[in-house]
Amino acid sequence: MPLNGDPNYQGPGWGQQPFPCKAYHRNVTHHSPDATWYTGSTVTFQIYDSTNTTGAGMHDPGAAHSGGSCQASFSYDNGETWIVVQSWEGNCVRVRKGQEGKLTNSYDIDQDYSFDIPASLPGGDAVIFAWTWLNSSGNREFYMSCSPIRLVAVRSLTEIPSGHPMYIANLQENPETPDSQNAAWSRCYVPQNVWIRYPQRYKGINPPIVANPLPDNSQIRFLELGDDGGLCGSDNKERVRALALQSS
């Protein structure tokens, strides 16, 4: 399933904001689902460079930003809450084979990502699937692309699943505030040239998929993120409300 919405869209003065989905998520129940997925099954989605909307292949050199780490999440309540199903720690998006550990914008041609949907999750006719990416090199950004899906399950939705919130970094509540004056910025911030390992509470339902070890001469390093006390999570309602102000 390809993702809808340009993850590189730069809203006026807000970069990758407003959160979530740069407001593409609004009124998702009015859109036909882009895919029907089944709990207990393995699904695959594809990432395409925004310069190529055909899905024929990756643009070269594109903007792989030396890889990074990314997550796949679901929302059952039109973007109010999120539950991470799968994390990829390192080399997401994938750089060209042989370029791992280098500062590069070259994509690998294979940008298919597969993960298991736990059988324990409920179904829903208006579920939002989100892919989020914290790039390694380049500007400090938080990429997010969303699509409506139909999720078929043995049990229907009776309550919103909780736990495993999304990790949100490199976004400011007010784009006019300098980084140095933003209280959350230094805590919810991913530095240059790293592949992060998410804090435990954000890793997701499934065990993370971890990239191969980096070569000894790597220009990139793995960074283990410590406990943030819940500050950077999608369940931090106060911060998320501030990040979403421009979508109202």
TrEMBL record:
GO terms for molecular function: monooxygenase activity. Gene3D superfamilies: 2.70.50.70. This is Lytic polysaccharide monooxygenase. Keywords: Monooxygenase, Oxidoreductase. The keyword Oxidoreductase applies. It comes from the Eukaryota. It comes from Cochliobolus carbonum (strain 26-R-13). PANTHER family: PROTEIN, PUTATIVE (AFU_ORTHOLOGUE AFUA_6G10930)-RELATED.
